[in-house]
Specification:
The complex is a heterodimer of chains A (318) and B (494).
Chain A (H helix, E strand, L loop, with lengths): L11 H4 L3 H20 L6 H26 L7 H19 L1 H24 L5 H19 L13 H4 L1 E2 L2 E2 H19 L1 H11 L1 H6 L4 H27 L10 H11 L11 H20 L4 H23 L1
Helix pairs in contact in A: 2-13, 3-8, 3-9, 3-11, 3-12, 3-13, 4-5, 4-6, 4-11, 5-6, 5-11, 8-9, 9-11, 12-13, 12-14
Chain B lengths: L1 E7 L2 E7 L8 E5 L6 H8 L7 E6 L2 E3 L4 H6 L2 E4 L11 H5 L6 E2 L4 E2 L1 H14 L16 H13 L5 E5 L7 H16 L3 E5 L3 H7 L2 E6 L2 E7 L5 H9 L19 E10 L3 E9 L3 E5 L6 H8 L7 E6 L2 E3 L4 H7 L1 E4 L3 H5 L6 H6 L3 H4 E2 L2 E2 L1 H15 L15 H13 L5 E5 L7 H16 L3 E6 L2 H7 L2 E6 L2 E7 L5 H9 L4
Parallel strand pairs in B: 3-10, 3-11, 6-9, 9-10, 15-22, 15-23, 18-21, 21-22
Antiparallel strand pairs in B: 1-2, 1-4, 4-5, 7-8, 11-12, 13-14, 13-16, 16-17, 19-20, 23-24
Helix pairs in contact in B: 15-16
Classes of the chains: A mainly alpha (318), B alpha/beta (494).
Chain lengths: 318, 494
Amino acid sequence: MVSTTQKWWPTRSELRLSWLDLGLIAALVVLVIAGTWFAESFLTQRNFSNLLRQIVANGLVSLGMLIVILTGGIDLSVGSIVALGGVLFAGLTDQIGIGPAILVAMAAGAAVGIVNGTAIARFKLQPFIVTLATMGIVRGIVFIYTETPIVPAHAGFRDLGSSVVGLVSVGMIIMLVCYVLGWIFLNRTPAGRATVAVGGNEEAVRLAGINVNRTIVLAYTLCGVLSALSGAILVSRLGIAQPSLGVAYELDAIAACVIGGAVLGGGGGGVIGTFLGVLTLGLINNLLNLMGVKSFYQEIVKGSLILLAVLIASRRKR
Amino acid sequence: MGGISKRYDATQALRDVAFSAESGVVHALVGENGAGKSTLVKIITGAVQADTGQILVNGAPTRIESPLAAQRLGIRVVHQHVSLVPHLSVSENIHLGAMPTRIGGLWIDWRAAHERAERALEAIGFSGIDVRLPVSSLSLGQRKIVEMTKACVVRPRVLIMDEPSAALSFDERGRLFDLIRQLKSDATSIIYISHDLDEVLEIVDRVTVLRDGMIIGTMPAATTDKRQIVEMMVGRVVNDIFPDRQAQPSQQEEVLSLKGLSCGSRFDDVSFTVAKGEIVGLYGLIGSGRTEVARCIFGADQPTSGEIQLKGHVVRPRSPREALKAGIAMLTEDRTRDGLVLFLSTCDNISLANFDRTSRYGLIQRRRQRAMVTEKVAELGIRPKNIDQPVRSLSGGNQQKVALAKWLLARADILILDEPTWGVDIAAKQDIYEVIRRVAADGMAILLISSELPEVIGMSDRILVMRRGRLVGEVPRRDATERNLVALATGSMG
């Protein structure tokens, strides 16, 4: 009789970092040193706790994006879902309380994900076009819900994003838990392995008797849920929910995934790499802010970084 | 061309081949699947380069470095699988890359394009296709005609036709032959590739037979016959790499039974049975419909009529998932295209069809999974033993074993194997044969599809032969010879 003991935690070989991961860690170290050198306020507890709060929004969206990218797809609607989750959470907290409001926000995110996934899996539409369409539709719905920023009066409203346990915020803890669950999903569940496999060879997965449509719908649903959750934590940190929230977040999320080694079109990428990608991107943003670099220069730096990451990845493949 | 050799990884596709095409001569190239015909064509057309040997064009040594270089030399191909751009119009496809233009190339002259396309179609004897329609709206036969027009419109010096008559009607075939005669009188040199030996002998001047990457012989069509060609095509000793058959299958217990299964134009009225523990071979040339039958049984395609019975119950799998649940497993033909996820590990690939056995409450039970996979890896002798290695890094033989292991674990009643040893070295072949025999002895019913004659004859208890979408014969193992199977498959009986 084979033992049926579960093994949740990663084995040593699964934790072995790839060259890309090690490169990213090296880049992080360089960034920290550069930060200490160029910006005196960089190496302070205040800045770090700020930084850790700021990366949560992109961190959660990037995790969702990673799952979608692994299936060979892409989700451009995440920014609009962030806004949807944010305004729903802020708008409902005063009436139904924090917990239920978060659940409603996440359910709304899931609904958008199901629409995305169904259109892509069942009707065989291109992910880029489908999510471009829902990106517009959802943004419109957000503006119908509220044209003016919402500022909830609920006492605990800001806890999620702002209150701190030790050095890290509650939002950061939620994000880390999501990353651990994400790792378990992608590495320890049949559905997760199928997700990874679909991006490599959809036909082989279909012929292996796996429901490919369901796998794809699940990926977009998870992405929607994580984006909505990200929106809720984001408005909690800002203390205000604007309908224009989350614009262009899809670009940062795709950037974090790609920098972390994910391959657009499927066939590579993982939770650890994406986490490092999120950290790198967050650190660069933080540093450029502290150095007083104007935001459009920041865009140039980020864009160049993405090109560099893709270039390195394509070289390694040969 | 002379002394041409080409190696792909572990297989020697061509060995010291010498071949010539003279102007005004139709030269047939025949051989079994995998004999090296396609590789030879690829070298002539610049798609791949030969490892050794040289090509002479008009007596001068020439390097054909790319398809473009081949086209500049006047070498054109009519591909077996039509290579047109589906959503572009017939005219655009015919003129692809050389559209008639005005104002110094800025403006496409559509009227001239359509007129020229129409004239080109007429010139080769096939008018009556609307050149404005997108190619995707044409029938397969019509597409083939467009492809031929595209090749002829540039007045090629060498025209290679790969199975040009495959999708054509009887009437169209007649006109194709007229076209070939016309091209011949224009001093075009034609290389004609076909499985249909009747056709070959009717139209060509010379026949070259390829086998195992070597030229077996070249002779004038007038002095040879089908019998001689078939002998040259198959003439090899069946080597004894096949394990002896131990247990005889119990003929009583039918596992799979097809009754009049048809699927549109792909195959028609196919009926046969496979019993428990029996290995039934399904032989036919590429395009004969054998893979299509298998895909219908496995639910990857839907039959248009007829029924499939599994252990006496009618099943109608609408997806591979349903087929698998019913107890039908299938090892697909092309492992890299639809059998394996190359960047994932051996462990992941083997598990892919078996999550119901390795997971509980939606979580994979790692220890059980790894134990199961490790056992199969040892049983099939998969190298390397490290199951976390991505299958991309494995040799062809080991990749095939991984694909096979996945289905062996799926605990099906019937296992369909489509070309189970394609592109696999001899040692791995032998391992795979032994495993197939062993699971059959354990009671699995096996449908073995293969275009390798020694394999079909050496492994099967009975052999079914398909030709042009129909089952044309059933041969018990003791009566099977390479010659009579090829005769059945090519329609050259007697």
